[in-house]
Amino acid sequence: MKLKRIPWISYLIILIGTVIMIFPFLDMIFSSFKSASEYSKLNYSLLPETFVFDNYRMAFEQLKLSMLFKNSIIRSLAITLLVLLTSSLGGYVLAKLRFPGKKLIFRFVLSTMMFPAFLFFIPNYYITVHFPLVGGNNIFGEGGYGGLAASMAGLIVPFAVSGFGIFLMRQFIMNIEDAYIESARIDGAGELRIFFQVILPMTVPALATLAIFEFIGSWNEFIWALLMNSVNNELATLPVGIQMLKSHLDPTLTQPLVMAGLVIATIPILILFLFLQKYYVRGMMNDGLK
Q1: Is residue 51 assigned to a domain?
Q2: Any alpha helices (H) in 40-64, and if so which ranges?
């Protein structure tokens, strides 16, 4: 006996899931408008009794949000663009070119995804601090004031290549017909021209998906940014600045300010997702159909 489909049950489940998912976000927004005394009350209330808009002004002053926001934007955009370039190039090479050792290189790329990222933090830290001829270091990487770690490059360079990104782009590019590439080669196009003018325009959905993942990951990354902040305080990002404020001041007084900072920190992510949403959905649909 076949069970009849009940659409309203599906809609109800989706509605309940949506409320559960969106409630913490709404609590963060409304808490950013509460006063410190109201936030510390035992009786919880989602809506504030009085909207305190001054929390956002104080957040910019006490958190130094302008500097933190600038550092986070520069870092996240730079890492995202570098990962898109290196991943698409690596994916194209591993998907369409033929050369000895290609399978071995691809397996090595896959193996990098099997280790947690924090295992590489200490080696990367020593490399950036003792990088030769940078930041006052001599040719042996000594005598300087921090090497790459003292500049914005220290926040960006260690994340310029992504094993997951190369894997994702390779799998997408493998589904592109070889006839496009052969036709371009017959017309005399070189590999770089084929990549930029033929392959890259076809991979926009995959690039948009990868851009969302990388931007959010870079924006929220904390441990490496904290290490770089120990070398140069001017390199602090939003997660580091917000956490330091929570650690050094009374949380009952600063929590509404922290919530205001978190609301501001989510704006670029929302804008990016809304801008790339149609490409992201298209990429997911294409992968699902294939």
Answers
A1: no
A2: 54-62
